[in-house]
Amino acid sequence: MSPSVLICDDSNMARKQVLRSLPEQWKDNVQTATNGAEALTILRNNEIEILFLDLTMPGIDGIGVLQGIKKLNITCNVFVISADIQPEMQAKVKALGAKEFIRKPVKQDVLFNNLQQHNLL
Amino acid sequence: MNEFHLTEDQQDCLQELINIAMGQASDQLARYLNTFVYLKVPSIESVDAKNLMETLSQQKNTLAVISQGFFGYEGIRGEALLVYQEEDSGRIADLLGYEPDELSQDEQLIDISSILTTTFLNVFARQIDNQMSYNAPKLLPNVKDKLSEHLQQMPFSWDLALKVNINYQVTDYSFNCNMVLLIPETAIINIKNVLDRILAEF
Amino acid sequence: MLDINALISPENKTPSALSEQNLTQINNQIANQLNTGILVLDAEYNIVMWNRFLQVHTDKVANNIIGQSIFIAFPEVPERWLSRKLDSVLQLNTPSFCSWQQRHHLFELPHTRPITTDSEFMAQNCTFLPIETDGIVKNICILIEDVTDVCHYQTQLQKTLDELATISRIDGLTQIYNRRHWQGSLEQEYAKAQRHDKRLSLIMLDLDYFKLLNDNYGHQCGDMVLIEVSALISSLLRVEDIFGRYGGEEFAIILPETELSGAMELAQRICSSIATKPLTYKDHKIKVTVSLGVAQLSAEESNYEMLITQSDSALYQAKAQGRNQVCCADFSTSKPID
């Protein structure tokens, strides 16, 4: 069973980078969003198990999405993937409910490790 | 002209590389400065020569421009300009952790500029398997009237400029400066090749 | 900029690759023959290597230097500042720079030029490079370039430019501002006064019977009078007043933030000071007087030239009324001259 996945990043390349790093059998069940508002719409209307979330995006950013998920009581495993790697930011997203913080550029082994830690792989 | 313009994919790829470089650079800076420096992921625009002159001349109260040349393998080279506004100058000494009388304002500006430019470009270069060397940074004299003159008198004719707006937020204040990367024709073609190589991996 | 990494990089191996040992010999010899100082520090800022350039330019003994802290070996360097700089090189793995333009020199090395400069020490451009061994930055290479010549010529050039800038503002004979600079200043002061709604007054003055003086005693006497009168007037002014030679024997004073009564008072003082100042030229007692016209900026003027016209016509009136006196522009009745 492959989980339903949402990748939210305003950069096309970054979305592809995450997609490429996913387990092969997951790739048929992946949706993408280019901004926070789009992601929240998808999250509301679909059951998404895993969200890979960028922080810096136009409009509703990653922090906004995390706050939205809390407010709307959506259950979802959120992995933040960001270039903004300062410790304060990592602490902030974890406090808002993100499972892990992954540095950009994302690498497959790092991604797998993180998924395993939460028994998602 | 058009051959220097980046395609949408190339632009996206470059933006992502710059975001990552700026993110890592700001993390390194925060550790070095031993304070919570929060660097917003910058906005990037690519501008041609004429537009750059117009944008820069619109900026009021430009206090100082620091220029520093960089060069790496595969013909990737250019010049970084750090443009500061008047109201932000006094805060730099605080940021660097210097005592006010230890060094002149000029030296503070040169120091912070050099740290910003080299930290950022080092990370950027590493991502594209390159390595940078740098010229000594220079304060451009009397920038108010001379910036356009300087841009015309570059050792190379540059065809593309990347304007990266950097915004620092330190616990109780923030300051802005613009980093402008001026890149000559041959280097653009090389950068485009590198970007295509990265894009081909996906 | 010299890049030591490029010199010693193993990537530079040619097809006829040199042995490791030969390469080291070549690198050592280059380092020792360079006209640039090389100083290598470890992560605790102790000196681990220096080249011949530094050895011959200091009188320190090589054996004592190696292993010593840079701050002990070179007590002249500012410790706090340099530590901070070296920290950035190690922590950020980036080069750092120090130019003679901000700091004339870091190390007190005597210069070898037969030129007299402000400093007895060599002007320097210093570069601080992170040196990676096994992928970790453990050392810092300091390159010290001698830029005494550049510094010397640049300083001379700046001095000359400053002199030229002064000459272009100053009247050669009287050493007060020339007309061009004075008029530029008036334009600025006029704009400032208009913008901030401040007062501004103007005095124009002219030596009486100056042509006669020249005819009777010669032009050298006329020059002497111009110099003496300029000096006397200068001594009566505030720092912010702008005094210039407007024409041959005509002078003008801009009085920022001064109203008409203040300007009139000053004009009277100038008038009587000159009239009572005894001047002698080749045993001749010379009596000099001036006529003065005063005007104040009012709502009527739409450009600074009109202010000159106002005080000029007041000066004309002072002349017509018998000279050696002050007149003020009565702007309620006076009309601008077309």
Structure description:
The complex is a heterotrimer of chains A (121), B (202) and C (338). Chain A has 121 residues and is of the alpha/beta class. Helices cover 40% and strands 18% of the residues of chain A. Chain A has one domain: 3-Layer(aba) Sandwich (Rossmann fold). Chain A has helices spanning 12-21, 36-45, 62-71, 87-95, 108-117; strands spanning 5-8, 30-33, 50-53, 77-82, 100-103. In chain A, helix 1 (12-21) links the parallel strand 1 and strand 2 (30-33). In chain A, helix 2 (36-45) runs parallel beside helix 3 (62-71). The longest helix of chain A is centred in the first third of the chain and has 10 residues, at 12-21. By secondary structure, chain B is an alpha+beta fold. Chain B is built from 6 helices and 8 strands, in the order H-E-E-H-E-E-H-H-E-E-H-E-E-H. The longest helix of chain B has 26 residues, at 8-33. Chain B is globular, with a radius of gyration of 17 Å. Chain B starts with 7 loop residues before the first helix and ends with a helix. By secondary structure, chain C is of the alpha+beta class. Chain C has 2 domains: 4-155, PAS domain (Beta-Lactamase, 2-Layer Sandwich), CATH 3.30.450.20; 168-328, Reverse transcriptase/Diguanylate cyclase domain (Alpha-Beta Plaits), CATH 3.30.70.270. Chain C has 12 helices and 12 strands. In chain C, the strands form 3 sheets. Chain C has a 5-stranded antiparallel sheet with strand order 2-1-5-4-3. A 5-stranded mixed sheet of chain C has the order 7-8-6-11-12, with helices on both faces. Chains in contact: A-B, B-C. Chain B binds chain C through residues 28-29, 31-32, 96-99, 102-104, 106-107, 110-111, 114-115, 118-119, 122, 133-139, and chain C through 1, 3, 5-6, 78, 80-81, 84-85, 87-88, 91-97, 99, 101-103, 125, 127.
